[in-house]
Amino acid sequence: EAGVAQSPRYKIIEKRQSVAFWCNPISGHATLYWYQQILGQGPKLLIQFQNNGVVDDSQLPKDRFSAERLKGVDSTLKIQPAKLEDSAVYLCASSPEVGTGAGNTIYFGEGSWLTVV
Amino acid sequence: AQSVTQPDIHITVSEGASLELRCNYSYGATPYLFWYVQSPGQGLQLLLKYFSGDTLVQGIKGFEAEFKRSQSSFNLRKPSVHWSDAAEYFCAVGGVGSYIPTFGRGTSLIVHP
After folding, report:
1. Is there a cis peptide before residue A43, judged by omega within 30 degrees of 0?
2. Confidence class of residue B40 from pLDDT cuts 50, 70 and 90?
3. Is A93 helix (H, G, I), strand (E, B) or coil?
4. Which of A12, A51, A55, B31 is within CB 3.0–4.6 Å of A72 for a Cys-Cys bond?
5. CB neighbours of B23 closer than 8 A, spacing ≥ 6?
6. Nearest CA in chain B to A5
7. Do A102 and B52 touch (CB under 8 A)?
């Protein structure tokens, strides 16, 4: 079974530029997550989708971050304009269902590493 | 609000020695608890999870964790560490009514030969 796919793996941009990350979840998984992991910290949820609807985007900086999952499968996370503090790993994850219920394991991709200079 | 505390930023052990990584959680109801491992340049991999039942949970790669409700803890253990276990370990908590798990800051495991 293929895992969660992310691209690009690495990106270096200048501040005020834009960047987009793509994620393809495990086939059949209804729920997709984008996490931000700053060096030395645990992952922080940015946005959670169930199919093509947003479940939780309360921690997404909406003035510069946007995400979509138009067809309920793959997803794109965009940052525009980027700031120095956006340097982090952006992890995409998926799970069969919403919530942390028994059996609903969250599977993570390898991450997209962003450096803003 | 739910939270996780991993009090040790770094842990150093010798190969073959035993390991215990500490995790304390705060959650208003019965928690679901998770341990994930992140190798350098990789995403997070689930080691084990606790939802209910036996408080001693077995996971992959020879890891186990014990849920202690009275201490609000879910410590991760391994009897004999291998050099390949060097990685970042994250504890996370969720539960009924919680849409997402909350992660701790992580503990970096260093293994000496």
Report:
1. no
2. confident
3. strand
4. A51
5. B4, B5, B6, B33, B35, B65, B73, B74, B75, B76, B91, B104
6. B43
7. yes
Amino acid residing at B66: E
Q: In this complex, is the C-beta atom of B96 within 8 Å of any C-beta atom belonging to chain A? A: yes
Q: For residues B63 and B18, give the distance between their C-alpha atoms in angstroms, rounded to a whole number.
A: 11
Q: Model confidence over B63-93: pLDDT tens digits?
A: 999 999 999 999 999 999 999 999 999 999 9
pLDDT bin (cut points 50, 70, 90) of residue B110 is very high
B31: its two tokens: 């928690």
Per-residue burial over B80-99, b if 16 or more Cβ lie within 10 Å, else e, is ebeeebbbbbbbbbbbeebe
What is the Cα–Cα distance from B13 to A117, expressed in whole angstroms? Answer: 36
**Alpha-carbon distances of A9 from B46, B103, B108, rounded to whole Å:** 21, 23, 22
Could you read off the pLDDT of A56-90 as tens digits, one per residue? 899 999 999 999 998 889 999 999 999 999 999 99
| Contacts with B43 from chain A: Cβ below 8 Å | 4, 91, 93, 108-111
Binary contact (A55, B99; C-beta < 8 A): yes
What is the per-residue burial (b if ≥16 Cβ within 10 Å, else e) of A85-113? ebbbbbbbbbbeebbbbeebebbbbbbbb
Question: Measured between CB atoms, does B22 come within 8 Å of chain A?
Answer: no
The half-sphere exposure of B4 on its side-chain side, counting CA atoms within 13 A, is: 29
